[in-house]
Amino acid sequence: MSLTATDIFCGAGGSSTGLVAAGYELKLAANHSKVAIETHSANHRDADHICADINNYDMRKLPRTDILWASPICTEISPAGGTRRSVQDGQIGIGDDDYEPVDPQAFVRTRATAYDVMRAAEVHYYKAILCENVTEFATHWRLFRWWVQGIELLGYNSQIVSVSSAHVGGPDNLHAPQWRDRIYICFTRVGIPMPDLRPRPLAWCAGCGEDVEGVQTWRKGRTIGKYARQYDYRCPNTRCRNSLVEPYTRPAAAAIDWTNLGTRIGDRTRPLAAKTLERIEKGLRQYPQRASLLTLNHSGHDGRAMLPEQAPLPSRTRKVGEGLLVPSRHGMLVPAGGSWNDTTTGIAEPMRTRTTRDSEALVTMPYVVTMRRNGRVDTVERPLATLAARGRHHGLVIPYRKGTAKPTSEPMLTLATRDSAGVLTSADTEPLRVEDCGFRMLQPREQLAAQRFPGDYIMRGNKTEQTQQAGNAVSCNVAQWLGAQVAAVL
Which of 77, 79, 96, 294 is deepest in the core (most CB within 10 A)? Predict the structure, then answer.
C-alpha cells in the first residue's frame, strides 16, 4: 500500500507532482484560487479537490492521510516584493500585449497562514508534515520559533532545510534550472526516525580530481539562509582541506523554447523602454563571446550541465543509458519592466527565482554555433547538425559564467586528464548590435519548466494567471526529493 498525502495551499501542483513522483497517493488538494484548482485537477484527476479559504475551513473535513504538505506564503516578507506591489488591479508589470487581467477575488482570498498547519496537525496527527516557504519566513517572522515549538508540542520533532532548487536532484529527478532559495520545515512524529534531509549535491572537486557529494557549510554560525550568502558547499575529503566546490546545475537554456527566438529588436513596432535597452547593452558587454565548446568524448554523464570553466563533465556509464547532447542557443536573460532585480544573466546559469510577475525577457543572438568536423557556423534558421553515436565533433554551446571567452589565438585553458575541454569563437568578429538581437518575454510554459514541471503539464487560466501559478509553485524536484526521504523512514 502506498503512502497517502494531503496538499493544502496546493497551487498549480508542484508539491503534489513531486510527491506523486516519489510514490505517494494524493488524496486531496486544496487552494483558495479557482484557476489553480482547475489546473491542479486537470493533472491530478484521481485526487479530490477543494476550492476554499483554508483560514475558515473545518480541518475535520480533511481526509486521514500519512503526510501533510503545506506551503503558506507570507507575501509581505517575500524578496520579490509581494503585496508591496500594486496588484489589486491585476497588473503584472511589463509583458506581451496579450496579457490579461487577473480575477481580483484571487487577491482577496489570500493564502492561509501558517497557523492553519497547526490546526490541521492537531486534528489529524499526521506521521509527517512538510512545509515550504521563503527563507524570510524564518528569519523575519518574529513568531516563527513559537510556531515551530507549537507544532512540536503536538508530538513532533522538527528540522529545517535551506536549499536551492538548482541543487536538488538525481538520476531519476532532474534538477530545476532555476536558482530558488527556500526553506523546508519537516515535522515527524516523535518515535519515527527523522529523515536525512541534508543536501548532498554532486560537485567536481579540483583538489581531489573527482566528483564528490558537497557538504553544506554555514558562514558565521548561521543555520538558515541562502546559497553563496549564508552557506556554501565543501568537499567532504580532508586531503583537499575540504575545499569549496560548485555543485552541478542545469542551465536556464534547458527551460527555454528555442523555436521562439522573439522579434528582432530593430523590427519592433513598439520600442523597448530605455532602461531595458540599457540592460541589453550591458548584457552584450558582459557576454561578448559567441560560444564556448565542451568536447564530449567520455561516458558517465547523467544529464546535468556543467559550466565549462569549473570542471569536466562527469562520465557516462552504461547503466545510465544513452544521452543526447544538443547545443543550446546563445542568449541571455534580461530583467524588464522595472524588475526588483537589475542584473543580466547568461543562459548557462540557472534562471533567477520565478515570481508571480512577468519581469524577465529572453534576448537571443543572431545565430548559434553548431560544431561539425569542419567547424562550420550555422544560423538559427538551419536544422541542427546530425548527432552521431560516437566521435568528438559535437559540443555543448555554453557561455562562460564569469569573464570572457578566449579566442583561438590565445592559449587553451588547462585541460584535466579525465576529460578534455576547448574554447572556440566564431569566425564572425563583428560586434553584436542591440537592434539585431531577438527579444521576447519568458512564457508561462518556460516558467513551468524552470520549476521542473513535466513538459505535458496542463495549465488553466489566462497568460497572467499561468505566470502567477508558475511563480507561486513549489519546484517539483525538491518536493520529490523531500517526499522520498520522508517515505524512507515511514
Answer: 294
Segment 336-359 shows an average pLDDT of: 64
Question: Quick one: 210 and 193 in the same domain?
Answer: no
What are 233's three cell numbers? 558547499
Residue 459 counted as domain residue:
no
In this prediction, residue 7 has a pLDDT band, given cuts at 50, 70 and 90, of: very high
**What is the tens place of the pLDDT at every residue in 384-434?**
333 333 333 323 333 333 333 333 333 333 333 233 233 333 334 466 788
Residues 214 and 187 in one domain: no
CA–CA separation, 307 and 424 (whole Å): 15
In tens, the pLDDT along 311-321 reads: 333 332 223 22
From 184, 215, 247, the end of a domain falls on 247
Domain for residue 302, yes or no?
A: yes
Q: How far apart are CA 134 and CA 183, in angstroms?
A: 6
Single out the residue of 112, 131, 124 nearest to residue 55, CA to CA: 112
CB atoms within 10 A of CB 153: 10
Neighbours of 100 (CB within 10 A): 11
Instruction: Tell me which residue range forms the domain holding 407.
Output: 258-442
Q: Provide the 3-class DSSP secondary structure of residue 17.
A: helix
Indicate if 40 and 100 belong to the same structural domain: yes
- Say how many C-beta atoms besides its own lie within 10 A of residue 393's C-beta: 16
Terminal C-alpha separation, the chain: 12
Q: 275 and 165, same structural domain?
A: no
